[in-house]
Amino acid sequence: MDETSDNNTASRSSLSTGTTSISINLLRNDSAYTIDRSPPNVVQNFLSESVITKSSNVTWENAFRNISYILCWYFFSTALSFYNKHLMGKDYFNLNLPIFVSALHTGMHFVITFAMMKGYLSFIYKKPEEKFVSSNSYLNRVVPCALGAAFEICMANASLVFITLSFYTMIKSSTPVWVLMFAFIFRLEQPRMILVFLISIISIGVVMTVFGETQFNLIGFLLVLGASIISGLRWSLTQMLLQKEEAMNNPIATLYYLSPIMFCAMLLLSFLFENPFNVFNTSSHFSDFFTGVQTVGLMFIGGFLAFCMTVAEFALIKNTSTVTLSVAGISKEVVIISLSVLIDNDKLTSLNLLGLFVSISGIAGYNYYKVTRGNDVAKHYQYTKVNH
Fold this sequence. Notes:
It is a multi-pass membrane protein. By secondary structure, the protein is mostly helical. The protein has one domain. Helices cover 70% and strands 5% of the residues. The protein has helices spanning 40-88, 98-117, 135-159, 165-172, 175-185, 193-211, 218-244, 251-273, 276-282, 289-319, 322-343, 350-379; strands at residues 10-17, 20-27, 382-384. The chain has a 3-stranded antiparallel sheet. Strand 1 and strand 2 (20-27) form a beta hairpin. Helix 3 (135-159) packs antiparallel against helix 7 (218-244). The two termini are 19 Å apart.
């Protein structure tokens, strides 16, 4: 005989897929669902269909959002790479102030994020609830992350003075190896042989693309290699920062706290290694007022590109992981290498092209692994029964 419960009792089903967790409550009362006292498998089948339908919608929504972040990151990062090379490369504009330019960009980031956080730009960004970082968290989490970002960006930009963009991109593609190592060290990713194997395949492809480099420069090579290693460290620190610090739960807040430290560190490095005031007095790029204004204007264009790219990076890391970002970055770097050949006439040998194919194969294998692993997790959800 069928009965309807008079009390509000609930059956909850939980499903986790990657970083997304979904919980659904089904109330057994007159205003919600009335469930017969049928065999347990009927109720479980009903629950599973409800959860899977909801999970599918949320999964597609997350996928669309993450793809949007990746595409934005691709565009602004690629544009910034060509901007930096053409602004600072010896064969182009040859503005030999890579660290000072980086400092100017981070200074712009602080001004923009300060205005957003204080509500001065509410017509394009809703003022968030203001939260504060404790002094302990600031010293132990924010400062190391900001210093790592400052050193990585300065070394990467400085290397473009000495090497081609394609060679820079190929060496920088080793970043996933360092990201993975630091992710293992900080326990952000669980070590798995298949994951190590796929990242190794990508790295082998990168080495193959570099092997035929004819314009090798040791200083440029060491700078970009050091930037790759520091990049692995700083993105692991960034992921821990975004996941644990409530006051930095969005990209704008993260930049708001990081950019002042980065600006000070970069400015100090510029004074130590570049002597910018001497460049202002001697460089043809600052020979008169009008030329100087044009040069400064070019610097600010890069600041806008860097701001948009960084916001997309932080948003992608918060919704996925640093390993996902680094592997997605490999495919972006393949695009940059291809554009370098078309735009800057960089030369690639058959071995370079084979290396690109190997890298793409590793990326495809990693993506397949992540998708199938996510499906396996979805199939093993568990029911939590509530007594009534």
